Amino acid sequence: MQLLDCDKRFGLVSIANHWLAALLIIGMLGLGLYMADLPKGPWKGPTVRHPQIIRLLMLMLGAARIGWRLGNTWPGPAGMRGPGSLKLRVCRICYCWR
Fold this sequence. Notes:
This protein is mostly helical. The chain has one domain. The chain has three helices and no strands.
C-alpha cells in the first residue's frame, strides 16, 4: 500500500488519519460516560485533564488532515464495474422502493 493518495484509492496516511480520529471520538465518548458517574474526590481532577489533552490531539489531527487533503488528490468515484453491477443496481432500486 502506498502512502500518498492516488486516482484509485486513499493512501495509508489518509486511512490512518481517518481511523485515528474515529478512535479518539469513541475514546472521548467512553471517557465522558465514565466521568459522568465519577464521584468528587482526588481522582476527579487528573481525570478531567485527560479530555483536554484528547481535544488538543483532535484539533492537531484535524489541522493535519486539512493540510494533507489540500496537498493530495482525491480518488475518483468507485462506480459500479463488472458483471454484478447490473444486479447490484436492481437490488438497490428494489430495496429503496419497499
